[in-house]
Design brief:
Number of helices: 22
Strand content: 15-25%
Distance between the termini: 61 Å
Strand order of the largest sheet: 12-11-10-6-5-18-19-20
Helix content: 40-55%
Number of strands: 20
Length: 690
Amino acid sequence: MNINDLILEDEEIIERYNLAIQRIRLMENEETVREPYRDYFCRMASFSLMAARIYEMVRSGQLEKLELKELKALNSALYEDIAGLNYSLSYANPSYACERLGSKHGKLLSFLYTELRSIIVYAYEKRLYELTIYLELLIEVYNYYEQGGEFISKDVKRAVYDFLYDYSSIFVFMRARGSLDTKDSFARDIITTSDLSDIKYLYLFGEYITDNEIKTAEYLNNMPESSIQAMADTFTEGYRRGFEVYVLDIGKKSVVNIRYRLGFERVVRCAIENFKRLGLDVTIYRAAVNVINKKQHLKIGYHSTSPNRQYDYDHRFDIGLFFDRRLMERMIECRRSSLEYYKDIAPVYGGPAVMEVYGEELFSPENKKEAIHLDKRQQKLYVEFNSREEMLVEKYYKIDEQSFTIISYPIPEIGRDFEAIFDETVKVNTLDNDLYRNIQQKIIDVLDSGEYVRIKGRGASRTDIMVKLHDLKDKNKETNFENCVADVNIPLGEVFTSPVLKGTNGVLHVPRIHLHGLEYRDLKLVFTDGMITDYSCSNFSDSERCRDFIRENLMYNHDTLPLGEFAIGTNTTAYMLGRKYDIAARFPILIAEKTGPHFAVGDTCYKMMEEVRIYNPDGKEVIARENEISSRRRTDPGKAYFNCHTDITLPYDEIAEISVHQKDGTVLPIILDSRFVLKGCEDLNEAFAG
């Protein structure tokens, strides 16, 4: 594959683009397609021509010369069709599309409408090749509807399938390029060369820009440079310390990938300079925009506030319209060839540095029957695809030599106390490592004396679960729990382990929780020998819809998942921040997991790094780095991992008891009735008084 074929504007692609634009201009006004489809194609044509105008403005340099008012109007025009209430009358809405066009055509054309929206990105990034092939796809589909006939939907579906199959090599390759190749510098160039005091720069990314991005950028612009530098230092120092904690050589790495939310460019610019001083060049890629690269509704990469989270949710399984073994094998082969192309760069990739945000309005999705879902056969195929993809990543990247860091800040949508919450979050992110390290060591010493830990809920929580711990052969040299302060995982405040599955039994019940942007009510997971054997929630009146919701979004289409991690969070300061401003429900997992015990379903924290020896500050080796499932990597690697890990937290106010049970029957409580009772942990309770 020649990369220049994808990024250069050669004569052939320019000619194809010009021909496509000419045809679409005619499409916008002609009446050769009957209703109700004519209205659909008129909208598609108008949108495509708007994207083409943006491409021309970017290419000529005109876009940067527009006034702020003009940039805002352009941004609004690009996204207004799916934003807010407008979505109810958009063909991107599968319910509306099916109502207007019929179920057979509606699902297919709603998918196409959504997929075509990726040309916004290609226009802003001057990626003429991808822009052109999508315009050509629109014309091809339009031609079928012009011709009419009984089998239009079958012809169109075949055409779109062939398009995805043929061009998946480009989509997958460009995704790999964005992650690994520092020459792919679209976002980095905006961040490092723009006048960040003028928020016009936000409109150069091509993302949907809201008050979240604008007010965040304005707030940071009012901060002194020293404060911005301190935030960047916390971020990059956590990354550096991750290598130190895991006894890895950062000198072997030369690439780090920054993932963040638009609005934080001042901090990211400083972080780029910090990483350079560590010998690391930066890649910054956008969250995936096409169906081949998307991972459900999750956004991995830089992005902005979603125009409509229901839109994201409705299209999380669009791949199900076409997904079969042939396409899966094609996607795997494209992934392999892309990694082979970058085989010299992949091993020097150090891992991601992630800046999350929190504070968005709580979201409970509507589960639409018109939206595309994976059938049972596709669910198994999708699980297989993710497993094989992860094995490819392990082969080309030296994962056991990588680290990461992740930190979180609030956004203005959190409410009128945004600035106060932001300042307090900065304080939470910089709590005293030494104080917490010493307290957490006392908790670990007691945990290491036990055979299992019992966790019981209080109030509305019906949790009652026994977590089995590994046997320690030499308690003077070995430990089950990692003492986690502010390195890779910021803020500080947890001790965690990979439990023994056999003997881990009971019920985890959380009255209300938000995971990956979705609300779960009365979430109940039943564990038998460490594996989920039953699950339910009360999101919908229909129990089967509830089970489907959990299976798709929490279990990622697996039949079962293990309890991959058990942890006790110690960050009572973060907990009280949530209580003070009534924002606990909006905390990201990153902060929420520190505000009580948490249970991760899926892989352990040491996935693909089990052979890396981990030591706590007291010199003891953390030996609980695998379980009965992950140990299969030695004999059957394809069955060792589930490629997911979701932390589910019980806040302190929902805890009746966390106690350590020793083999002789002795019970040592750590938390009783929501308060730490273990000697040496008194300082943790002080935050509750505030």
